[in-house]
Design brief:
alpha/beta, Rossmann fold, 5-stranded parallel β-sheet, 4-stranded antiparallel β-sheet, 10 helices, 11 strands
């Protein structure tokens, strides 16, 4: 599985996709070989969880655990193989050849999205970090990555995404330049950009015209809270430094939870969301079916 967010976000909180869609064949071969060597060296019989990080084509090992993880059911549904049952039989003396198991790349894509309960905890920091904060997960499946991603996104929020025509973007300094392409994609789709002053300056300098600067304080003319209250915002993209202070009821992340809107707190999440959203802006054409858990023979 390939994580959507960069390393530094807890693996249980990161969205992920199977099969990987951005890793090169060379990197995939290295990961597969390193995983095989680790299993042999540790004499693992059954399931093993390995986390790798890739930077500039170099593969690093974060950790390896000779146990199952909560992603096993997801991988089983995505691959059509009852992995937990196979692992149990291996530990009881069976062999992969005897089970008839051989990994094949799944037909289509499966995306896991996490579910959070921030709305239940007043003052909780609604942002991704090394500490795990999710309380559940959903799965979307499609012929393309974008289709699977949007189905998973719809499962988190609602069967139909908002028809509002504005998107809010507020980025910390290091992320502003990476939002130019995202904003351009949204404008081409007919969306108006609402932005903080600093982000608006960067986007305007890049030639994006349809931008409205919004105020963060409620009660001000053109405040973000006013746009949210009127149902004019379809998506919020906001990256920021971690805050030690508690968040008040009017803080942007508390507002997002109140209105239950799609919200991206990482550059990677925003890029993938907008890429998928611009390709599948409506979900009406999709047919939803339940995916049963594979049975072992």
């Amino acid at each position: 599985m390939e994580h959507i967010e960069a390393a530094g976000v807890h693996s249980g909180d990161s969205a992920c996709v199977l099969p990987p869609h951005q890793l090169s064949p060379e990197v995939m071969r290295t990961i597969e070989e390193q995983g095989r060597l680790l299993a042999l060296e540790l004499k693992v019989c059954g399931l093993m969880n390995v986390q790798f990080a890739v930077k500039d084509g170099e593969v690093y090992i974060i950790e390896v655990n000779p146990r199952a993880s909560r992603t096993v059911p997801f991988v089983s549904k995505a691959s059509g193989q009852p992995l937990a049952k196979y692992a149990t039989r291996l530990m009881l003396g069976a062999t992969l050849e005897g089970l008839g198991y051989r990994y094949t790349v799944p037909d289509g894509y499966s995306v896991k999205k996490t579910v959070f309960s921030f709305a239940c905890f007043v003052g909780a920091a609604a942002e991704l970090a090394p500490e795990m904060r999710s309380t559940g997960e959903v799965m979307g499946r499609g012929k393309s990555f974008e289709e699977a991603y949007m189905k998973a996104q719809a499962a988190v929020y609602s069967p139909k995404l908002s028809n509002a025509r504005s998107v809010f973007i507020g980025m910390r300094g290091a992320d502003k330049a990476q939002m130019v392409l995202v904003a351009q994609q949204l404008v081409r789709q007919g969306y108006r950009i609402l932005a903080t002053a600093g982000t608006a300056d960067v986007l305007e300098q890049a030639g994006i015209a349809d931008i409205q600067c919004v105020h963060m304080q409620p009660g001000q003319p053109d405040s973000l809270q006013g746009f949210l209250h009127r149902g004019e915002v379809a998506l919020l993209i906001n990256t920021t430094r971690s805050r030690k202070r508690k968040m008040g009821a009017t803080h942007i992340r508390r507002l997002v939870l109140h209105y239950n809107l799609p919200y991206c707190t990482t550059v990677e999440g925003a890029q993938h969301y907008v890429q998928s959203f611009t390709k599948f802006g409506t979900l009406d054409r999709f047919r939803y079916v339940s995916l049963p858990m594979p049975e072992a023979s």
